[in-house]
Amino acid sequence: MRNILLALCLLIPTSVKADGLGFMTPSKNIYCNGGVTGGGHLYCTIINRGGPIPLPKPASCNGYWGHEFYIEASGNVKMICSQRLESVDYTDIAHYGVSGEFGSVNCRSERTGFTCSNADGHGFFLSRRKQLVF
């Protein structure tokens, strides 16, 4: 029953409540996972990216920088130093035109990119051409 409801939610281009499962965009270039506990949070990774990196790489990062973003219900977006980048193959797709809520974190998947913001108005925009932190 749960799979049927989830499938219906992903087919209807409206707002859906996220339940902590991982998902990816139709391009398979951006994938996220998170949950609604503690007000909501979300980790998102973009595999193929271009343009300037939105935040300077810390000296302590010896891995990949500019690919992983973390947002909580409030506060600034954090970027994460990754030791390796790998694609996933989630069955749940955030189709273009669909919005989702992870507690106080709201996201929208569109052909132009993937945007998430929190209750404080902080967030990120991810696309193959550019990534922004606001």
Describe the SSE topology.
Layout: H1 2-11, E1 15-17, E2 23-24, E3 30-35, E4 41-46, E5 64-72, E6 78-82, E7 98-102, E8 105-110, E9 113-117, E10 123-126, E11 131-133
Parallel strand pairs: 1-7
Antiparallel strand pairs: 2-3, 3-4, 4-5, 5-6, 7-8, 8-9, 9-10, 10-11
Question: TL;DR?
Answer:
This protein is mainly beta and 134 residues long.
Description:
The protein is mainly beta and 134 residues long. It has one domain (2-133). Helices cover 7% and strands 40% of the residues. The protein has one helix and eleven strands. The chain has one helix at residues 2-11; strands at 15-17, 23-24, 30-35, 41-46, 64-72, 78-82, 98-102, 105-110, 113-117, 123-126, 131-133. The strands form two sheets. A six-stranded mixed β-sheet has the order 1-7-8-9-10-11, with no helix packed on it. Strands 2-3-4-5-6 form a five-stranded antiparallel β-sheet, with no helix packed on it. The radius of gyration is 14 Å and the shape is globular. The N and C termini lie far apart (38 Å).
